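Title: Prediction job returns without error message
Component: structure pipeline
Severity: low
Priority: P3
Assignee: unassigned

Description:
Job completed but the reporter wants confirmation the result is attached to the right record. Sequence as submitted:
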Amino acid sequence: MTEQHRPAAEYRIEELAHRSGATVRTIRAYQDRGLLPKPERRGRANVYGDAHLARLRQISDLLDRGYTLASIKDLLEAWDSGRGLSGVLGLVAEIDGPWTDEETGRITRQELDATFGGTPDEAAVADAVELGVLEPVPGSAEEFLVPSPQELAVAAELHSAGVPLPAISGHLRELRVQVEHIASRFLDFTTEHVFQQYFDHPPSDAEAEEAAGLVRRLRPLAQQTVDAELARAMRSLASRYLRHHLHSEPPERTSAEHVPLPAATVQSVRDLVGPAGVAAFVAAATEREVSARRMDALVADAAPAAPDVDKDRGTGPAR
């Protein structure tokens, strides 16, 4: 029998689930969300075909690429209306690709401890994992992936120069807030002046490929601009700092003591004021409590003694 005259395959939902790797519940959920066409009704049974199987495999592939179900629905609707997916997928791959030439590294726990003074510090490691500076290797408790070896090397240099690890983590959190603001402004700027022409309608394959080429051209500009401006600012500010400290009395230094706080307390404060404001909030709350107690003590010391009730009873006017 030729391919042209071969009867189309038909599946019940259980067989479709088996062939696609999806569950029956997932298939029904896709139908409800409009991601999967309704099956053909045959009496009391629902019948699916090869088109349903192909669509399920498309959805699975797009999920593996990191798409959400909402974006997958938009892409599949574009596909159904006659527009291809290759250009859009190429654009997304260009944006999702690495934005730096730096290669991921690995480090063992023993090497990590040696890099930071030789003394194990569980709290610091947990902080680094939370920040994404380290990523645990699945199945290995003694090895980490290092997404940015340069960032870890900077932390090691700062620590060897005398900066405490909690201060390094706090500085990184604060820096990230500011850098993410810069990145957001750069994206807003380029979208308004360059990419808006592609985003105000579903792009064709040719338009998506053209946009992907622009991403490749513009990708290094943000880092180059920040590098140049940071170098300019550091040169200017460092000279100003040096002149100030050479021509003025050294400021009075106050010692800082690192007091460990419960993780739940730190997390609550972080949720309230954000990562960058944790230290300032704790310091302000502490100062307020200390001031309140000083005021209470002053009021207690200045309060007049209670009057002698027995004496007062004999001091009234004579009748």
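Comment from assignee: result matches the submitted record. The first helix runs from residue 13 to 20.
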